[in-house]
Specification:
Layout: H1 3-12, E1 16-17, E2 28-30, H2 43-48, E3 53-56, E4 69-71, H3 75-90, E5 94-98, H4 103-114, E6 120-122, H5 132-138, E7 146-150, H6 158-166, E8 170-173, H7 181-184, H8 187-194, H9 196-204, E9 207-211, H10 215-220, E10 226-231, E11 242-249, E12 252-259, E13 265-272, H11 276-289, H12 294-303, E14 312-315, E15 320-324, H13 330-341, E16 348-353, H14 362-376, E17 381-384, H15 386-392, E18 397-399, H16 402-411, E19 418-422
Parallel strand pairs: 1-2, 2-3, 3-4, 5-7, 5-8, 6-7, 8-9, 9-10, 10-11, 15-19, 16-17, 16-19, 17-18
Antiparallel strand pairs: 11-12, 12-13, 14-15
Helix pairs in contact: 1-3, 3-5, 4-11, 4-12, 11-12, 13-14, 14-15
């Protein structure tokens, strides 16, 4: 079936799903498959549950007598092609966001700001991969004025694949750091891959929002039509669309900002960590550029409440938890550690989990964290995972897994402390909320 014909079916549908558990009347079911599952086996079931169409690529599950079934060479590629067709049919502006750290938080902040003036669709959660991006695009409707699309990457070429689906008109890279080195091979590989967003914008006359305070991003943005924002400066940084600085962070970030010709604003956020100043200024820059009133920008930034274990404060019956347990690259960990060092508390505790996907650099990067912990003078530190056990060499208390930590906390409860939880999502530090 030609993509145009499939698009006509899409226009008559109520949307698409790739989850056989979420099939409902009027949806199109795309039968994706992976190493451990084959969505094709649910194609007939999806139709019985009310889907108007099942797109399959396994002939064993294709019924030629059922006109509601569509056989294609590759379901994922077809989903992506359909999204691109829809994106071009809509013709609305798309803002693409990527980066090593902070992309989901920045996407949420940009979305909160832009919704003060515009109707738009944005990536839900962190559905930012080769499946999530086309689903986001296909969820955008003619009633929307903008689409905000988050893009993640773990291998070279990942961002190139995603920008070719979403075709952004505007782009924002939060930062570049040492994460997923196992996939990228090197920090230069990270820069090149994240920079694929800038490459697309250059080639298609797009514009970028660039953090002037980040030398790597400025280097990558050479020759690109861009709007710059700057952090850590006093007053109005000359030539920057927006500038600002941290006022305090104890533990919530409070900062001031101003546009080139606007007054100075003070914003009290609900974000944990001074490093979020860059994410907030990025959102303010987007808002200013698109004409969102500055008072609305401030209100959006103040009212945004983080979730999904990102930069959030959880107060339990026993402790205050600074939870940043979704991402744990070296860059994000250093920022969290520095921010936590200035938090005022009578008793601090750090529970840190291994950093995943660092490849050959893993030993050295974990050793750097241990040395930094010593330099900061942190005493009550628990490290979780095999990598930290090797690097610690007895300097701090270590645990094989989060389950061991739960056992220890159950036997010897921790009370009246401010606890930083920081680790790769796979370590599972988020499970400690109930125990702490």
């Amino acid at each position: 079936m030609e993509i145009e014909s499939l698009y006509n079916i899409f226009l008559e549908s109520k949307g698409v799903t790739t989850d056989s558990r979420k099939c409902a009347d009027g949806l199109m079911f795309f039968a994706l498959k992976g190493e451990r599952f084959n969505g094709n086996s649910f194609a007939a079931q999806a139709l019985s549950q009310g889907c108007i169409c099942s797109v399959v690529d396994d002939a064993r599950f294709f019924d030629a007598n059922d006109k509601r079934m569509v056989l294609v060479d590759n379901v994922l590629k077809t989903l992506q092609q359909l999204a691109l067709y829809h994106r071009r049919a809509l013709g609305l502006p798309v803002i693409g966001i990527t980066g090593t750290n902070g992309k989901t938080t920045t996407k949420e902040l940009v979305t909160s700001v832009m919704r003060r003036r515009f109707k738009l669709n944005a990536t839900v959660g962190n559905l930012n991969n080769s499946i999530g991006v086309p689903l986001t695009v296909l969820a955008t409707t003619p009633a929307d004025e903008y689409a905000i699309v988050e893009m993640g990457a773990s291998h070279p070429g990942d961002i190139r694949e995603l920008v070719d689906i979403a075709e952004p008109d505007y782009g924002l890279i939060t930062n570049v750091g040492k994460a997923h080195l196992l996939g990228f091979g090197s920090f230069e590989g990270v820069m090149a891959t994240k920079g694929e967003l800038y490459d697309f914008l250059r080639a298609h006359g797009g514009k970028a929002f660039v953090n002037r305070s980040n030398p790597y991003l400025m280097q990558m943005a050479q020759g690109l039509d861009r709007m710059e924002y700057a952090s850590g400066v006093d007053g109005n940084a000359q030539g920057a669309l927006v500038s600002g600085k941290v006022l305090e962070c104890n533990p919530y970030l409070k900062f001031q900002w101003q546009s080139q010709n606007g007054p100075v604003h003070e914003v009290q956020t609900r974000l944990i960590g001074s490093y979020n100043i860059d994410n907030a200024l990025a959102a303010a820059s987007v808002g200013v550029f698109f004409g969102v009133p500055e008072s609305d920008i401030c209100q959006a930034l103040e009212e945004y409440t983080p979730s999904n274990n990102r930069s959030q404060l959880t107060v339990t019956a026993s402790n205050r938890l600074v939870v940043d347990a979704y991402n744990a690259s070296r860059t994000s960990r250093a920022a969290a550690r520095e921010s936590f060092s200035v938090v005022q508390s009578a008793s601090k505790m750090l529970i840190l989990g291994d950093m995943r996907e660092l490849g050959d650099a893993s030993d050295a990067e974990h050793q750097k964290v241990v040395e930094a912990l010593k330099q900061y003078g942190f005493e009550n530190v628990w490290l979780v995972g095999a990598e930290f056990q090797k690097a610690s060499a007895g300097a701090f208390r270590c645990f094989d897994s989060v389950d061991q930590v739960i056992e220890e906390l159950s036997a010897n409860p921790v009370k009246d402390r401010t606890v930083l939880l920081k680790g790769s999502n796979g370590i599972g530090l988020f499970k400690l909320d109930e125990t702490l």
